[in-house]
Amino acid sequence: MLILKVISRLLDYPTAEMFAAKDELKIIVETCKELTAQNRSQLLKFIEQLAARDIFDAQESYDLLFDRGRALSLLLFEHVHGESRDRGQAMVDLMNVYKTNGFEVNSSQLPDYIPLYLEFLSEQTPEYIEEWLGDICHLMTMLSERLIDRECYYSILFDSLITISGQEIGLEERAEVAQTVQQEERDDTVEAIDKEWEEKEIRFDDPMVGSCPSSSTNGLQQSTSHSKHALNPNTVHQVPIKWHSVDGKAPDAAQVYGL
């Protein structure tokens, strides 16, 4: 599905190559049958606005938007698992899905990077695409509303993905998500970033002190605490991500990396 490749490129870091391909991207959007007329119109406007910007300004804005704070992180499991150990296993599971479906990851990005996830889905069947986008539909709604709250036109990318998923997000549910977003404390301010980097007080009665942290399968140290921006599984905004295994068994690191 070419439209997923287009959205993947638009959601990725802006490059001169992407700007140069503006006309090709617009043609795919104009002929896309998976989107509504409103989605197509908004996407075309997005491409024009983005490509009209100075490339360095566009890149700076992108960094400030997606790489400053966790609320708009483009890493799926940042929102689902936060900093828990489950994130490492989820990475393994997703890499196994890619490998099982013949999708070779030639990227330095983590497997749950949304543009990479969309690139993978673009090569799958429509039924597969709808199911897997449906799994993260509530997450995409949350990201869209956070972008709308910041008056950012990137929200149309997530709204288009929701349309492609075939999921119906009612006005009442959307309004509830918007209300939740409006009550959130911004995590991209200077004060919030300083607080995030403050040295944590060491307590010797902490059971984690002196213990060895478990190593994750992606080589990153994991924490048992959850990010304050992870979605609460007990709320209406639960993201029911379920990684599908061919044999029904959960893969381990050895299977994924051929160890």
Can you put this structure into words, describing what you see?
The structure is a single chain. By secondary structure, the chain is mostly helical. It has one domain (2-196, 213-244). Helix content is 53%, strand content 0%. It is built from 14 helices and no strands. α1 (2-11) runs antiparallel to α8 and α4 (37-51) runs antiparallel to α11 (155-165). The radius of gyration is 19 Å and the shape is globular.
Summarize the structure.
By secondary structure, the chain is mainly alpha-helical.
Structural class, please?
mainly alpha
Radius of gyration: 19 Å
What is the H/E string? HHHHHHHHHHHHHH
Number of domains: 1
Taking the sheet with the most strands, its summary is:
none
Counting DSSP E segments of at least 2 residues, the number of strands comes to 0
Q: Determine the mean pLDDT.
A: 76
Low-confidence stretches: 206-259
**What share of the residues lie within helices?**
40-55%
Which features does this protein show?
259 residues, mainly alpha, 14 helices
List the helices and strands and how they pair.
Layout (H helix, E strand, L loop, with lengths): L1 H10 L4 H5 L1 H9 L6 H15 L3 H12 L9 H5 L5 H15 L13 H8 L4 H10 L1 H13 L5 H11 L5 H12 L7 H7 L56 H5 L2
